[in-house]
Amino acid sequence: MKYGVVLFPSKKLQDTANSYRKRYDSRYALIPPHITVKEQFETSTDELETLIPTFRDIAHKLKPITINVTKISSFSPANNTVYLKVEKNDDLKTLYEHLHSGPLAQEVEYSYIPHITIGQNLSDDEHLDVYSQLKLVDVNHEEVIDRFHLLYQLDNGSWTVYETFRFGHE
Amino acid sequence: MKYGVVLFPSKKLQDTANSYRKRYDSRYALIPPHITVKEQFETSTDELETLIPTFRDIAHKLKPITINVTKISSFSPANNTVYLKVEKNDDLKTLYEHLHSGPLAQEVEYSYIPHITIGQNLSDDEHLDVYSQLKLVDVNHEEVIDRFHLLYQLDNGSWTVYETFRFGHE
C-alpha cells in the first residue's frame, strides 16, 4: 500500500487554498490541502504497524510547529506546480528529518521545500496566466500545527487518513 | 465548525465502494467511503477540544468492531440513497450510543442504520435503474475495524480528519 505523512493546516487556510485549487488543481478532489512532511512510500499493512511506535515517538518528542505562509510561488521551470510557500524553519526541518531517518529512511528525489499546492498539471500557457496573477496576491499568515497525519492511497488516487499523531502527546 | 465521526473500512472495501460511488454518488469527491457513527454536529474549536477526552475514553473502553457487509440496499422511498448494508450488531450499537450520550448527546432524526453510501441524489428513474441492478450483486464481507475518526467539514463540503482514536488504546 502507498502511504504518506502530511500536516493539515487550519480550516481557514484549507478553505483559502481550496478557493484556488478548485480552479487550478487537478488533484483537488483527492486530498484536502496539506503540507507533505514525508514523501510517498510503499509498504505492507503489517510492516506499517511495526512503524507506528516510531511515528508515535517522533510526535511525542516534538512540539507543535509554527508555520508562516508568505507568498504564492511556483516550481517552474521544474514543473508547473503553483503553491502557497511555507517558510522552511527549524521545526519543519527537524520533523522532516525524523520522518526520513532510522526505520523511516527513504530515498528522496528533491530537497525539501515545504508548501501547500494550489495548482498543478497546468499547461505552460495556463501556468503563465495563473501564476502571473497569483504571484501578486498578498499572503501573510501564521499558525500553529499541533499534529500530523499518516495517510494511505486508494485505487482511485484519493487518500484516507490511517492515524493522527499529536505533537507532545504519548 | 461542523464535525462528524466515522469508521473507514479497509482499503479493499473502500475501493469496492468507490467503484460504485464514482458513477452514482454525487458526494464521491468530498469524503472517502465510510460508516457514520456520529451524526454531524456543530461546535466551536475550543468547545471541541473539551470533548476530546470523552472520545478518547470511549475508544479506550471499547474493543475493535467486527462488521459484516451483507448486501446492497436502499433507503427508498424515504430517499434515493443506495448503500452497502452493514449488519447492526451490539458493538456498533454500543459505539453509536456512547457517541450520542453524556457530553456528546445530540438530537437525531432517524434510528441508526449502519451503512456505506454508494449512491445518492439519484433521480427516481436513475435510482430505479441502478438499484434494480445493484440489489442483485452478491455481497458478503467481514472485517475488523480498530479505530474511529473525528472529521470536520470545509467550506467546499469536503471533510478533513481532525483526530484518530484507536479502540482499546489510552
UniProtKB/TrEMBL annotation, chains A, B:
Gene Ontology terms for molecular function: ligase activity
Short sequence motif HXTX 2: positions: 115-118
Domain of life: Bacteria
InterPro entries assigned to the protein according to its UniProt record, in alphabetical order: 2H_phosphoesterase_YjcG-like, Cyclic_Pdiesterase, YjcG
Active site, UniProt feature: H34, H115
Sequence similarity: Belongs to the 2H phosphoesterase superfamily. YjcG family.
Protein name: Putative phosphoesterase SAMN02745910_03055
Organism: Priestia endophytica DSM 13796
Lineage: Bacteria, Bacillati, Bacillota, Bacilli, Bacillales
